[in-house]
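To close the chapter, one final illustration. This time we ask the reader to focus less on the individual chains and more on the assembly as a whole: which components sit near each other, and how the overall shape emerges from the parts.
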Amino acid sequence: MQSPLINELIEAFKLLPTIGPKSAQRMAYYLLQNNPNGGKRLAEAIVEAIDKVGHCDQCRNFSETDVCRICASPARKRDQLCIVETPTDVVAIEQSGIYQGLYFVLMGHLSPIDGVGPEDLGLPLLEERLKDGEVSELILATNPTVEGEATAHYIHQMATSMQVPVTRLAQGIPLGGELEYIDSGTLSQAFAGRKAV
Amino acid sequence: MQSPLINELIEAFKLLPTIGPKSAQRMAYYLLQNNPNGGKRLAEAIVEAIDKVGHCDQCRNFSETDVCRICASPARKRDQLCIVETPTDVVAIEQSGIYQGLYFVLMGHLSPIDGVGPEDLGLPLLEERLKDGEVSELILATNPTVEGEATAHYIHQMATSMQVPVTRLAQGIPLGGELEYIDSGTLSQAFAGRKAV
Ligand SMILES: [Zn+2]
Ligand SMILES: [Zn+2]
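The assembled structure is written out below.
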């Protein structure tokens, strides 16, 4: 008995993570009833971000410019390269404030079953990067999951074959824990305690 | 260090009810990383709903047509009129399936301090409606808050002066509610309204 447009809005909100039917309904009515301007702002922000945010040429992180702000920053140490699976991992590490080097964002992990191979993770680009000799420490910060470990192993071998020293974040990250949900303190300790592997 | 467009998207998500910084970040990255098509669908649904959903000429509920589906339905009893504060109240009552009459949606409650008077709630329209004699029971279902009660009182007087019978939803302990967690106001009303069994 509800307006079809309101129904569609509720369905669309249900696409978001953790949003069930009840929350979706609340959001839809909130925007219509209390904050239509906020709704327009949200719609525009979604379209703008999806249309204009691409990937950094150097680290593959999300960026609306060819080279992202971190890669372009003269304040970052250019001889440390931290390998993470996703952009949200970068956000988590940046929030800890412990790390001043650069990143390489895989945008996933090796998963033969899903057809995700080294090229999909930009590993040829990483290989080029290691070849130019600027990186003196490659820090593996993939998730401690089966796929994350397999990906780390693959990159470790690649780096070792090119004589690039490799470290791995210290234990302290709980087994099966996902980097993006780890608190800053734990992350800081994991960085400080990293070891050669 | 994040892309300004991603920051703006996170800020816009934070406008939604119950969404804090962490959830907003998760939603923003989820749309970019995993579901850009879903994001476009959400943006379009927001804009469509805000642009095209207006109010029903008869009951003031949200509607994209002049007369909403409930008011236009031949299946509804036209002699019962239930007064609610908001469209979400209509949704809640419709979900219970208990009521087959029509609604009148105030889109708020009387609040002199915020400058909300009878005209803002469409009460002249309600008066016209009562005048035409079709309504034989007006059901007050405003919220049991100070403002809701004051609004109910105002409408009660209006209906009585026009010889329209008025009822009020029963107040008491909710189904499954545990006595020890029920507030004393509700308990008082439950006592006052007790019945022989
Ligand atoms: Zn970059
Ligand atoms: Zn209507």
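The radius of gyration of chain A is 20 Å. Chain A touches chain B through 55 residues (CB under 8 Å). With these observations in hand, you are ready for the problems at the end of the chapter.
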